[in-house]
C-alpha cells in the first residue's frame, strides 16, 4: 500500500492509510490535530510503522521535554518490529532517538538525509525544516526545500506547502523579494496555509512594512485564524505590528483574545505570550496580572531544558519578581553549558549571556545588561527562533542603553534599528528619547513628529 505521494506503507489497512494521509497534510498545513489523527490510524493498525514514526517526528519538533518519554516509546515500538517496520520508519526512529538523546544537530542531519533520499516523504521534509528552525540554521531552512522540490509535481498532495516552507527559509536568509513571491505563490495554490501567511508576514516585519503587515493578516484572517493550532503565533505577529504603531491597547486585546486566550502549558504558545508581555513592559505598559498564569507554568521549569525556552522562562521570573527562580535557572544553565550535546552548546554560546543580560536589566545594572546582551546577539541564532523572535534581545539592549544613559551604545543600537526600519514609529520614539537624553530638544521634537506621522499613515 502507498500513501498519496507514492511512498510505500507497511499497513494493509486502507482506513489507517487514509488517516495517515490526512495527518500528513494536517501537519504540513498546521490545521486540525495531526496527533489525534495518527492515534486513530494506530487504533486501526497498532503496528503501522509510518504512523508511529510520524508521531515521533512531530513530537520532536515541539521542544516539549515531557514528550521525550513518549517519543522513546514510539521509537522502541519501531525498533522491535525490525525489518518489518520498513527502511523509512526505521530511519525516522533513528533520527528521533538521536534527537531525544541530546544530539539535536545529528538528529536534524538524519532527517535531512532521509528527505534527500526520499523527497516525497513529507514528514521527513517538514521535520528537517522545523528542526532547522529550532537550531537556528537559517540557510538550511531554504536549502532543504530546494533539494527536494524538483522531485515533486504540482498535482502531488502537499506540493503547495513546500512553497510555504521555501518562503520562510528565504525570508530567514534575507532574500525578502523571493520569500514574498514564494509565499504568495503558495497561497495562490492553497489559501489556507498558515505557514505561508506567516512567511509573508515575516517579510513585512523585517522590512518595517507595518501597514502592509496588518492588511495582509486581516485580509486573510478567515484562512488562518480558524482551525489552526498555529493561529496564536500569527496573532502574535499582528500584535507586533500594533506595537510598532504604538497601539499597545490593541496589542493587549490581541494577547487576551488570540495569543494567550486561555491557560496553556505548550512551550511554543508560552514563548509568544511571554515575548509579547516583555515587549509591552519595555514600552512601560502595565499588563496587570497577566504574568501570573505564565509563572504558574514556568516555576516548575526552573531547571531549564532548551536555551530558547529558558530565555522566556527568565523573562517570566524577572517580570514576576521571582529572582530566586531566576538564580536557579542560571545555575542550571551553567551546569548544562559545561556538558556536551546541542543544548549545552546553545546554552554556553547564546543562552547564558542572554539571561545574564536580562537579569542585569531587571536589577537596573544597565551597563552589564548591554554588555551581556551584546555578547548574546552574534550567537543568538544558535538557539533557534526567527529573526523577529530574537529581536527582543537587541530591543532590550537598546532600552538598557537608553535607561542607563549610555550615549555611545544607545546611538549605535538605534542606528542599527533605524537602518532596518527607518519608518518605524516605535524606533523613532526611542530616537526622540535619545535626543532628549543628550540635550537635543529640537531633534527630539522632529523625531516625535515623524513617528506620529508614520503611525497616522499606518492607521489609515
Task: Please explain how this structure is put together.
This protein is 73% helix and 0% strand. The protein is mostly helical and 460 residues long. Among the domains are: 231-421, Serine Threonine Protein Phosphatase 5, Tetratricopeptide repeat (Alpha Horseshoe); 422-459, no CATH class. Helix 15 (248-259) runs antiparallel to helix 16 (267-282) and helix 22 packs antiparallel against helix 23.
Brief summary of the model shown:
By secondary structure, the protein is mainly alpha-helical. The protein has helices at 14-29, 34-44, 49-60, 68-81, 87-100, 104-117, 122-134, 138-148, 159-172, 176-189, 194-206, 210-219, 221-224, 231-245, 248-259, 267-282, 290-298, 307-319, 323-337, 342-362, 366-376, 387-403, 407-420, 425-437, 441-459.
Task: Figure out the total of helices.
Answer: 25
Oligomer: single chain
Enumerate the spans where pLDDT stays under 50 for 5 or more consecutive residues. Answer: none
- Number of E-type strands: 0
| Proportion in β-strands | under 5%
Largest sheet geometry? none
> Which class of one domain in CATH terms?
Mainly Alpha
How do the helices and strands line up, and which of them pair or pack?
Layout: H1 14-29, H2 34-44, H3 49-60, H4 68-81, H5 87-100, H6 104-117, H7 122-134, H8 138-148, H9 159-172, H10 176-189, H11 194-206, H12 210-219, H13 221-224, H14 231-245, H15 248-259, H16 267-282, H17 290-298, H18 307-319, H19 323-337, H20 342-362, H21 366-376, H22 387-403, H23 407-420, H24 425-437, H25 441-459
Amino acid at each position: 500500500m502507498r500513501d498519496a505521494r507514492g511512498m510505500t506503507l507497511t499497513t494493509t489497512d486502507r482506513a489507517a492509510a487514509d488517516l495517515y494521509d490526512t495527518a500528513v497534510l494536517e501537519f504540513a498545513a498546521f490545521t486540525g490535530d495531526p496527533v489525534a489523527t495518527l492515534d486513530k490510524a494506530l487504533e486501526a493498525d497498532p503496528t503501522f510503522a509510518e504512523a508511529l514514526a510520524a508521531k515521533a517526528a512531530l513530537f520532536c519538533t515541539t521542544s516539549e521535554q515531557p514528550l521525550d518519554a513518549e517519543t522513546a516509546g514510539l521509537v522502541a515500538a519501531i525498533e522491535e518490529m525490525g525489518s518489518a517496520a520498513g527502511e523509512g520508519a526505521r530511519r525516522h526512529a533513528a533520527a528521533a532517538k538521536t534527537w531525544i538523546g541530546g544530539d539535536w544537530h545529528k538528529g536534524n542531519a538524519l532527517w535531512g538525509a532521509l528527505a534527500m533520499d526520499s523527497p516525497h516523504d513529507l514528514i521527513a521534509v517538514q521535520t528537517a525544516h522545523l528542526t532547522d528552525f529550532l537550531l537556528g540554521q537559517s540557510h538550511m531552512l531554504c536549502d532543504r526545500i530546494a533539494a527536494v522540490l524538483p522531485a515533486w509535481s504540482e498535482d502531488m498532495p502537499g506540493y503547495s506547502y513546500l512553497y510555504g516552507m521555501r518562503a520562510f527559509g528565504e525570508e530567514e536568509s534575507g532574500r525578502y523579494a523571493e520569500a514574498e513571491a514564494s509565499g504568495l505563490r503558495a497561497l495562490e495554490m492553497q489559501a489556507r496555509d498558515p505557514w505561508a501567511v506567516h512567511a509573508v508576514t515575516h517579510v513585512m516585519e523585517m522590512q518595517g512594512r507595518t501597514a502592509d503587515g496588518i492588511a495582509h493578516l486581516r485580509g486573510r484572517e478567515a484562512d488562518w485564524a480558524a482551525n489552526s493550532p498555529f493561529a496564536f503565533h500569527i496573532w502574535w505577529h499582528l500584535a507586533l505590528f500594533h506595537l510598532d504603531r504604538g497601539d499597545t491597547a490593541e496589542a493587549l486585546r490581541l494577547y487576551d483574545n488570540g495569543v494567550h486566550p486561555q491557560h496553556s502549558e505548550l512551550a511554543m504558545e508560552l514563548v509568544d505570550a511571554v515575548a509579547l508581555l516583555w515587549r509591552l513592559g519595555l514600552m512601560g505598559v502595565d499588563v496587570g496580572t497577566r504574568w501570573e498564569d505564565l509563572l504558574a507554568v514556568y516555576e516548575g521549569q526552573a531547571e531549564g531544558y532548551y536555551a530558547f525556552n529558558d530565555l522566556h522562562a527568565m523573562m517570566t521570573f524577572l517580570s514576576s519578581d521571582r529572582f530566586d527562580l531566576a538564580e536557579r535557572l542560571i545555575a542550571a544553565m551553567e551546569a548544562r553549558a559545561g556538558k556536551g550535546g546541542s543544548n549545552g552548546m546553545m546554552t554556553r554560546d547564546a543562552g547564558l549571556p542572554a539571561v545574564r543580560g536580562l537579569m542585569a536589566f531587571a536589577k537596573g545594572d544597565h551597563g552589564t545588561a548591554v554588555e551581556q546582551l551584546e555578547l548574546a546577539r552574534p550567537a543568538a541564532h544558535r538557539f533557534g527562533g526567527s529573526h523577529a523572535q530574537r529581536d527582543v534581545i537587541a530591543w532590550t539592549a537598546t532600552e538598557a542603553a537608553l535607561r542607563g544613559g549610555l550615549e555611545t551604545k544607545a546611538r549605535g543600537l538605534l542606528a542599527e534599528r533605524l537602518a532596518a526600519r527607518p519608518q518605524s514609529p516605535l524606533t523613532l520614539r526611542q530616537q526622540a528619547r535619545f535626543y532628549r537624553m543628550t540635550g537635543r530638544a529640537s531633534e527630539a521634537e522632529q523625531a516625535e513628529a515623524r513617528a506620529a506621522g508614520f503611525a497616522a499613515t499606518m492607521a489609515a
